[in-house]
Amino acid sequence: MLNSDSIIAKEGLPFIGIGAGAASAAFLAGWSATGAVFLALTVFTVWFFRNPPRRVPAGESVVISPADGRVVQIEKVDEQRILKEERVKISIFLNIFNVHINRVPCAGRVVDILYNPGKFFAASVPKASLENEQNALVLERPSGERILCVQIAGLIARRIVCWVKKGDRLQAGARFGLIRFGSRVDLYLPVETRLRVKVGDKVKGGETILGVFK
C-alpha cells in the first residue's frame, strides 16, 4: 500500500513519540538542558520525516526525479544485474537535510522488486551503487520499456522502506518509499533519453524533470 498524503511519513511517528516523551520527562524532572536536547532532536525528526506535496509535471514522456538531492553521477553503463543492457545511470545523493520520500519517475507497472543486503559505504561514492544495501524497483512503461530505480542505503541510513508490491500500477510522482537519513537513488534510463540535468544539479523528487523519453 502506498503511504498516505499525511505531512509526516508514518515511519517517523515512533521516533517522534520517543523523542517527545523523553523531552517531556526531562522537563518534568527539572532537567532543562537535557529536555532542550531531546526537544531539538524531536523537532529535527519531525522535519526529517516530512512528506510534502509536489507539483508533478504532466506528460507521459517525461522522466521525473525519484528523490530530492544532488546529481552526483551521470554515465552510460552496461547494467547486467537486472536489465542486462546498456543504460544511462543518473545517481542522486540525499543528505540528512533532504526530503527522504522516494517518488515514481514515470507511470508504469511494478514488474519486480529486488532487495539485496550489503554494506554501508558513504552514499555519495560510486561504489555504493554496487556494494551497499539496496532495493531495486523495476517499472514497465505502457510501451513495454523497463525502467530501473534503485534505493541505496548510505553510511548513516540503515533502513530502506518500499510501500509498493509487484503488480501495482503507479502514476508518475507517486510516493513509493523512503530511506532513513543519508542515502542515494540510482535511476537507469534508456540511452536514447534526452537528459535535462547535469552533475551538480539539485533536484526535487516528484517535480524536477530529469529527461524526456524518445
Concise structural overview:
The protein is of the alpha+beta class and 214 residues long. It has three helices and 14 strands. The protein is 17% helix and 36% strand.
Task: Explain this structure.
The chain has helices at residues 13-28, 32-48, 128-131; strands at residues 62-64, 69-79, 85-94, 101-103, 108-116, 134-140, 146-153, 160-162, 169-170, 175-179, 183-189, 194-195, 202-203, 209-212. It is an alpha+beta fold. It has an eight-stranded antiparallel sheet, with no helix packed on it. A three-stranded antiparallel sheet has the order 1-14-12, with no helix packed on it. A three-stranded antiparallel sheet has the order 4-10-8, with no helix packed on it. A hairpin with a 5-residue loop joins β2 and β3 (85-94). The radius of gyration is 18 Å and the shape is elongated.
Portion of residues within helices: 10-25%
Largest sheet: 8 strands, antiparallel
Average pLDDT: 87
Radius of gyration: 18 Å
Structural class: alpha+beta
C-alpha end-to-end distance: 31 Å
Overall 3D shape: elongated
Tally of helical runs? 3
* H-E string: HHEEEEEHEEEEEEEEE
- The share of residues in extended strands comes to 35-45%
Number of strands: 14
Strand arrangement within the widest β-sheet reads 9-5-6-7-11-3-2-13
| Poorly predicted segments | none
